[in-house]
Amino acid sequence: MNAKQKVLFICTVNRMRSATAHKIYEEDPRFEVDSAGTDRTANVLLEEWHLEWADAIVVMEKMHRNKIREHFPAWYTKKPIVCLYIEDIYDFMQPELITILKEKFEDVYRRGLLG
Question: Is the residue at 90 inside a domain?
Answer without folding.
Answer: yes
